[in-house]
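Researcher: Good morning. I'm working through a list of sequences from a screen, and I'd like to move beyond sequence-only analysis. For each chain I'm collecting a predicted structure so we can compare shapes side by side. This is the next one on the list. No need for commentary yet; just the structure.
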Amino acid sequence: SVTIDDLHETSHFFDLEKQIEGAEDYTFPVYHSPDNAEEDTTKITIESNGGQLVLSLVFKNGTIQSVDQKLSNDIVIFPNPVQDQLFIKNAEPNKIDEISVHNIIGKVVLNESYDFGVSQLNLSYLKSGVYFVHLKSSNQVVSVKKIIKQ
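Model: Good morning. Structure tokens for this chain:
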């Protein structure tokens, strides 16, 4: 879903029926009609099964001055890029039951149960490349993070 919080007229063409596979990008236009006010902010919230992304666009005299983005979840994965050990820290451990790592074509290369607090994954056996960490709760993906294995 997409919500837009602004004092001015806005519209978007986000397709709720679109299903995105894996690492596929999805682009959609957002139209903002400011009155060329001295300063204005538009907040765009995008919510999916991968979490919530909040974009704050700051306009000055009708021109974008800055874009601030914040992922609204309490899960931190580090280091990225990773060499051998990947750590997953979760402020709300009850949200995660299972962790799986998928390669770029979607094949599962690691699947583990989640231990509360901080979990450590040994990725030393993986080849260098791009992988996706899927964090699941009650058979539903709650977050997907892209990592780079060196």
